[in-house]
Amino acid sequence: MKQKVVSLMMLLLVGCTASQSEVKEKNTDDWFQYGEQRAKNGFLVQEKETLESANPEEAVTEAFYNAYLEGHTSGTTIYCSQEAYILGLREAPYFGICDQVMPDFRAEYEKGKNHKKE
What we know:
Layout: H1 2-21, H2 28-40, H3 48-54, H4 62-80, H5 84-89, H6 105-115
Protein name: DUF2799 domain-containing protein
InterPro entries: DUF2799 (IPR021242)
Keywords: Signal
């Protein structure tokens, strides 16, 4: 019985050690998803240097940054397809992500935002 308990404890210790040492490194899919999610939340694209500063433990390679940019472009399309007027009515923050893609987006957003004030 004592041997079974010791064996079980050893297995638990090995399992805990293995799970703690397994740190998932980011790949291009992760950077794509990160860029897409930021854009879906309305945030402007970040420069590579800004990403490196925000993630000092990770190397932001050209491939990673390009994946981030592709994801951001995808997320921008999704974000800018929503009704700007409704976004303004909800008084959600708008950081200008659609200004280059849809010049009328900001005007519609402002109309919605100012609708409640009238």
